[in-house]
Amino acid sequence: MTSELPLLIEPAELADHLDAPDLLIIDLCKDQVYDQAHVPGAIHLDHQRLLAGTQPAPGLLPDDQTLSALFSELGLTPDTWVVAYDDEGGGWAGRLLWTLDAIGHKRYSYLNGGIHGWLAEDLTTSTERTEAEPSDYQVGEHDPRTSVDLDHVLAHYQDPSVVIWDARSEEEFAGVRAFAQKAGHIPGAAHYEWTDAMDKTNNLRLRDLEEIRRELADRGIQGDKQVITHCQTHHRSGLTWLLGKILGFQDIRGYPGSWAEWGNHPDTPVEKSE
User: Fold this and answer.
1) How many Å is the Cα radius of gyration of the chain?
2) Which residues belong to the active site?
3) What is the number of other CB atoms lying within 10 angstroms of the CB of residue 118?
4) DSSP at 55
5) Which of 48, 114, 119, 195 has the greatest count of CB atoms below 10 A from its CB?
6) What sign for the dihedral angle of Cα 154, 216, 119, 22?
7) Peptide linkage before 56 cis (omega within 30 of 0)
8) Residues ≥6 apart with Cβ < 8 Å to 84
């Protein structure tokens, strides 16, 4: 394998590197999907293990000890190149890659279209569960530019050089549906639903990147600002964070507390669409 793969990798290109010794392919599909067909050599990961799972903000990162144990179990080393994919268009794969980025592991790619993109190209699949070769991976210093907390969002959501990218549904953004005590959105937030980036006619691959870039810019989401993206638990916004990286945004950050934290906090301001 060459020393680097592209951040957004196409199925045919990944197929050329399956035998690379430093490659770790992680499948975040549903269990039954993995058992029916997966990329040869891919190791299955239950996406819930990427979340702390504690209320009121279940989307927060697990602690370093938990993450070190998880990535050791998966066989991660500092030299490993991780390729992640899922069966839903990139939310869980993006959440995994965001987690790696947050703990300082920058060697990663996203398989465009996930398992749907792979199957559409008639590439070889496997039904055998791949067992990882455990490593001794220790989480190092976190990258402060990958993740933000509640205090950061409270301090900066009105800053003109910062834009909050809300990746939830239109109904959640407007305050018609709520999965927290408060309904609505962070004041001034820009809305671009995570599924809008997917090409539903092309196996959930990302749509034309320049079209997406224009659509985001029309809503004030652009790479010359600090972009903070969130959803309810930073699952759907795993994809929008990844999309910002793919588009070359210089400062794209995930807010893992997301609406679960903001919408259940007594002192956070909320706005509703008219």
Assistant:
1) 18
2) 231
3) 25
4) T
5) 114
6) negative
7) yes
8) 25, 26, 28, 93, 94, 96, 97, 108, 109, 110, 111
CA distance 94 to 110: 8
- Rounded distance, CA 225 to CA 252, Å? 8
The 8 Å CB, 24+ separation contacts for 49-54 are 50/92, 50/95, 50/96, 50/99, 51/233, 51/235
The whole-angstrom separation of Cα 210 and Cα 247 is 8
Residue with tokens 């220790």: 138
**C-alpha to C-alpha distance for 192 and 213, rounded to whole angstroms:** 11
pLDDT tens figures, 81-90: 999 999 999 9
Residue 274 has pLDDT above 70, yes or no: no
Task: Find the DSSP H helices in the chain.
Answer: 11-15, 31-36, 64-74, 91-102, 114-120, 150-156, 170-174, 209-218, 236-246, 258-262
Residue 72 has phi, psi (to 5 degrees) of -65, -40
Give the position of tokens 């990746």: 167
CB 20 within 8 A of CB 224: no
Q: Are 194 and 237 in contact (CB under 8 A)?
A: yes
